[in-house]
Description:
It is elongated and about 140 Å long. Helices cover 1% and strands 55% of the residues. It is mostly beta strands.
Amino acid sequence: MNILLKCRQKYYWYFIWILFFFCSVTSSKLVFAQDAICAEVKIVIEQKLSFERQAFDARMIINNGLEDSILKNIRIELLFTDRNNQQVATTQNANDNDAKFFYRINSLSGINSINGDGEIKAKTKAEAHWLIVPAYGAAQSDDTLYYIGAKVTYTLNGQEVSVEVPPDYVVIKPQPLLTLDYFIPSEVYGDDPFTPEIEPSIPFTLGVRVKNEGHGTSYKTVIDSAQPKIVENKQNLLIDFNILGSYMGDHAVNKSLLLDFGDIAGHSSKVGRWDMMTSLHGKFVEFDATFTHADTLGGSVTSLLKTVNTHTLIHNVKVDLPDRDNITDFLALDGDVIRVYESEGFNTDLSDQSLNATLTTVGKETKLVFPKTEGQVYVKIADPSFGNQKMNKVIRSDGKVLPAENIWQSKIRNDDLSWSYYIHLFDTNSTGSYTLYESDINETKAIVDTFLVTKGAKYSLNELLPENYYFEANKSYMIEFIGNIASRICSGKNNFDENSKKCKTDLNRNYTFEKDAFKTDIFIPSKSGILHGDSHFTGNIYLLAKQTETIKVIVVPLDMENSLTNTASIIKGFRYSLNELLPKNYNFQADKSYLVKFSGVAMTSRYCPGKANFDLESKVCKAEVSRDYSFKSDIFIPFKSGILGKNNEFTGNFYMSATKDGNIKVYVTPL
């Protein structure tokens, strides 16, 4: 009897059942809560785990050399003993979990059965092969020696004969023992059925960690995933649910549905994840993973898969301790317990300091404070900016900059269809004090944005101003709208109702918005923040679009301390150059922008555009004269430093004509 060592792949099939909760609507997306239909949709993600493991092919050859006798009633029994010649429990039953070996007949030739009714004809050779698969308990920590022999019983000429076949030995290597942990979020984002616009789908993560708790290596470990399938959808909702790509550790693997973990050494782990997307917003209300192992390979007897667990993913994080591998870890919720499942296999319960945390905002900085905490800590706190103030840098009080994965924002749909917004933080050995910096803050420079308006529609102030523009308290901002927009309403102490587009009275305002003496729209917030979505800055005015068009919105922070005004007397019909009207002895810096505004007696349009200059004597344009500045859209930009009107550097290149006698006021502010 020969026993040949072979490596065979072992397969486990997984079915990840996910119960997905969607809200749909009856006719239009603009409906109230009572019009909603809440639907449960079941999907299944079929996956196959495979890895190479130790298995044996046992071969026996029986040669009947007799001329005219048949060997009948042949029975072959395999005999397993340990190195001390003690019998070892074996089984051919895939559900007998007490055995150390599973075996089955793999192939027969020259004989039809070896169970007591087989025959080998005269002058014929028979060959039998068995597949022998060791169970996990056959060798856990060290190489273990076993002997495999056989007892052959047959009938020859009516007489029963038994033959003991000398055993051969096999060495069983330590086995791997795998635990799979799956991580999936509780809520995913696609089109929101309760809003008129179509929201884009936001990718989410289905994560997996393969942890080898055995002493042996799991060789060539692969998880192959199929596209998610919807298996139950009674409401016939139109849902797309797709896998977009895959990651091994933190490396993208060409959008493959296959995760190749390679070799996983004993007492180590590896992580992978799939980026997925659904077309409709919804919540995972439950999910579970079940697995089966083919009975032909030993079933539960030889299974090296210990268990499959499912967890609610809070977020991908990184445990950034010096001795860690800097690979993505999973922050998860198990019932009421928050744990970190690390890529290196550690499972750690952490301290939840959410109830002890406070947020305070001063200017552009937000301070997050909670008690100093040793070990791993998590905080979830309401976001006062409603998700509008984005964080690109978070610094701990000891100077540590948090990894981007460990500070994030989220939103959750409430039962009344409103949204709640949160800031989350994960850290290790925390001082309990952090400074949050918001990104995309443009408070120091002018910006221009465009907005499409519809004829006859009303728009509140915060609908038209640029997104994520940070306003500082008590600072003045010029705001202009270029387009066919009607007069504003709800000024003074009145506020604007976003839903009804009407004024409402007796509400506190945290800003002023007035036309100043120069007919410039000046916005002065009483509190710092971002206009959009922030209750501090609910629009107290609206604008009426006279036609459907794209308008321009200009926001300019004003340097009021360095601003100047000048008053000049003008006579009806007279023409005045720019340097005759601007403040005297005002030093302009080269290449700096200045806002120039006029109020008072009406002036006609400017002349001498382009490269032409204005002749002070004749009050007419003259061509082909070099200019030392540009003047467009009330923005004056000198090319050389100097004082306007005192030298030829800033001779006006256009003029204005007074429509009546009177005074005109000129306002200049550096931008």
